[in-house]
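User: Hi! I have a protein structure encoded as tokens and I'd like to know what sequence might fold into it. I'm fairly new to this, so please keep things simple.
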């Protein structure tokens, strides 16, 4: 998976990188990945080493906003351009841009269809840092902020070898200098208003980059930090990566909702199949339980026909019941109701049916594993030569799902996005639509 896809860096986004442990390497990787698709603009609000002029194919030195007139022609000739001011007086570093120049650069980048990538603070090569009071310098119009940390810091002492601004980190975390840096310390710093969230514009999306996952131990540390991070609603996702490797992204962690569709009238069965008891619980309970056991959150159950009874059947489970008054207009209305109830911060949703009792948390976890590894827009079980339920949809597919009309579900958008299949046995194909299906279900109770 490309780093650009994992971080969701797209044309015209303004992306600020902060922290330590590989910001410049991440910028170089993104410039290389995105240059094949269109122009890329890089800049800084801090100071860059002179050697970092190599981050882009071309380097434009400006004095102020009026000096940006040469940028369009440079972008015609080169796929990536770095913009800085001149060299600092007392050290061999390029100076960063002021806000007025950044605003003009944002406009020029947008006109060219280019993302604007900004290194917004420095860490002197260390893997972890806490910002000083004047840092980071993130423009207010940044819509994506990437706090970066190097996973090689886990287990290391809190000292100048590994950490920039040791005293500041110690103060934020309540540690003594020299203490061992543990997984929970890294996660706490990334999610702190005095750490990874300092200076982040209120409306910006925050995706954490856990870099240097180049050993099994560091990969496992990254996974653990990512799980801690998702407890903080301000942090959208965590990307576990080794940005200098050929395949830089290992896994992506984000919040995945579960949406149980339980609104139908079951006309062929002539009774609400959602409420059919099986192994001591209604079928809809089993679907919701599988979603919860797999770690989906929130879990939303969309009800329609027999809605009050469905709600009562789930009263002991931590799920959100959403009534769909338009359920008789078709499944698309329940898909829409479920997505609209997810709220902000959701990376993907798994849609489950309320009448597939052999869909357990195992198959949902398999979908999640494949999604974390690839971020494929649609992930579904593959049984022999056919697609099966449940299906995971990335947030990039949500606009298409929200446009569905009538008695259509997510299958209607399969031809519009890439799909990854996970092979599964045919047990998950059993659904309860007819009296004959109910007889089959009873035979395996």
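Assistant: Happy to help. Inverse folding works backwards from shape to sequence: for each of the 445 positions I chose a residue that suits the local structure. Here it is:
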């Amino acid at each position: 998976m490309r780093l650009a896809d994992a971080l969701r860096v797209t044309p015209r986004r303004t992306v600020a990188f902060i922290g330590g442990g590989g910001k410049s390497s991440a910028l170089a990787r993104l410039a290389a990945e995105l240059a094949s698709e269109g122009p890329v603009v890089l800049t800084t609000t801090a100071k860059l080493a002179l050697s970092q002029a190599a981050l882009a194919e071309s380097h434009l030195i400006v004095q102020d906003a009026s000096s940006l007139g040469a940028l369009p022609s440079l972008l015609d000739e080169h796929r990536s351009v770095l913009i800085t001011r001149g060299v600092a007086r007392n050290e061999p570093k390029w100076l960063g841009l002021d806000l007025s120049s950044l605003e003009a650069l944002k406009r020029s980048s947008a006109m060219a269809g280019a993302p604007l990538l900004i290194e917004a603070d420095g860490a002197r090569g260390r893997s972890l840092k806490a910002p000083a009071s004047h840092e980071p310098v993130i423009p207010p119009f940044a819509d994506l902020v990437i706090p970066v940390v190097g996973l090689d810091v886990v287990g290391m002492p809190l000292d100048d070898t590994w950490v920039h601004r040791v005293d500041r980190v110690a103060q934020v975390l309540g540690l003594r200098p020299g203490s061992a840096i543990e997984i929970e310390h890294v996660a706490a710093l990334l999610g702190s208003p005095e750490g990874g969230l300092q200076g982040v514009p209120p409306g910006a999306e925050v995706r954490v980059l856990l870099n240097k996952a180049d050993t099994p131990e560091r990969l496992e540390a990254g996974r653990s930090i990512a799980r801690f991070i998702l407890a903080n609603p301000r942090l959208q996702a965590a990307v576990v990566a080794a940005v200098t490797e050929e395949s830089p992204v290992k896994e992506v962690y984000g919040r995945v909702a579960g949406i149980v569709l339980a609104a139908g009238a079951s006309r062929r069965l002539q009774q609400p199949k959602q409420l059919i008891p099986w192994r001591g619980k209604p079928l809809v309970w089993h679907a919701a339980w599988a979603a919860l056991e797999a770690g989906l959150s929130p879990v939303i159950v969309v009800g329609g026909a027999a809605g009050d009874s469905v709600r009562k059947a789930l009263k002991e489970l931590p799920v959100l019941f959403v009534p769909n008054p338009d359920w008789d207009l078709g499944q698309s209305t329940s898909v829409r109701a479920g997505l609209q109830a997810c709220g902000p911060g959701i990376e993907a949703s798994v849609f489950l049916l309320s009448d597939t009792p052999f869909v357990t948390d195992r198959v949902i976890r398999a979908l999640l594993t494949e999604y974390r590894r690839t971020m494929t827009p649609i992930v579904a079980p593959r049984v022999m030569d056919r697609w099966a339920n449940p299906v995971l949809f990335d947030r990039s597919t949500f606009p298409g799902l929200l446009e569905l009309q009538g008695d259509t579900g997510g299958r209607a958008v399969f031809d519009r996005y890439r799909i990854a299949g996970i092979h599964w046995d045919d047990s998950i194909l059993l659904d309860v639509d007819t009296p004959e299906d109910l007889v089959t279900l009873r035979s395996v109770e």
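A useful reference point when you look it over: The two ends are 42 Å apart (CA to CA). Feel free to ask if any position seems puzzling.
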